[in-house]
């Protein structure tokens, strides 16, 4: 266990939120994720960062129990996630993938309403409360205006908002998102990141794959920097986003300073380092 995974008094954290131990994924004889251990606690946003091909998407799919690791275990609330019944897993963990395309002519509201199914018995009808939660989560995601539209007619960014609302309708303990703002314009990027921050402040454990390092520094409590499928460093953004780590992992000469407006870090990449060879750890 790393120092960043210990509580303030030096003891192991309570078994809440999500913890992944020794996650290894192998595909066609190639190691995609290599012995990764990390934890996301309730009330925190954990950002997964790293260059393209670092293994972030594969890791988050394992955390969501969408993919099965060759080795390692994911636990939520102290229980092994893959051993839980599917309905219970869906109540514990909600996942928003990069690809949110749907081929069926559901309305956006119908899609969000599907997020309530884990809370309803197999043959039970949806309740008034389920419809109320659906409408509330559409509003929370800034997607109420899309409620009656067919998802097949929506843009990629609009579908992303709808799937975020669906994930929130699960009312999970852990929210996992793979590049949740990649398809969004500037206003909606800020809206979604602020929404994730609010959800964490209300007690949710949030794990998000992010590419914009300044956004990650501003909205995340902790960052996990990956390269070649391995976890290079994890901790507070100021511990992770350093001149040295950006040079070694991203191959850039960068200046990292405090932004006087946001209070977070501002990162300016000045040059691409010549003859960059990523350090394998």
Question: What's the arrangement of secondary structure elements?
Answer:
Blueprint (H helix, E strand, L loop, with lengths): L17 E10 L2 E11 L4 E5 L6 H8 L7 E6 L2 E2 L5 H7 E4 L11 H7 L13 H13 L15 H14 L4 E5 L7 H16 L3 E5 L3 H7 L2 E6 L2 E6 L1 H4 L2 H8 L1 E7 L6 E8 L9
Parallel strand pairs: 3-8, 3-9, 6-7, 7-8
Antiparallel strand pairs: 1-2, 1-4, 4-5, 9-10, 11-12
Descriptive overview:
The structure is a single chain. The protein has a domain at about 100-170. About 30% of the residues lie in helices and about 25% in strands. It is built from nine helices and twelve strands. Helix 3 packs parallel to helix 5 and helix 4 (about 130-140) crosses helix 5. The longest helix is centred in the last third of the chain and has 16 residues, at about 185-200.
Major sheet strand order:
6-7-8-3-9-10
**Sheet/helix structural class:** alpha/beta
Number of strands: 12
Q: Sketch the topology as an H/E string, one letter per element.
A: EEEHEEHEHHHEHEHEEHHEE
Mean pLDDT across the residues is 92
How is the main sheet built?
6 strands, mixed
What integer value in Å does the Rg equal?
19 Å
Distance between the terminal alpha carbons, to the nearest Å? 17 Å
Low-confidence stretches: 1-14
| Percent strand | 25-35%
Shape designation: globular
Helix share, percent: 25-40%
Number of helices: 9
List the keywords.
six-stranded mixed β-sheet; alpha/beta; disordered N terminus; single chain; globular; 281 residues
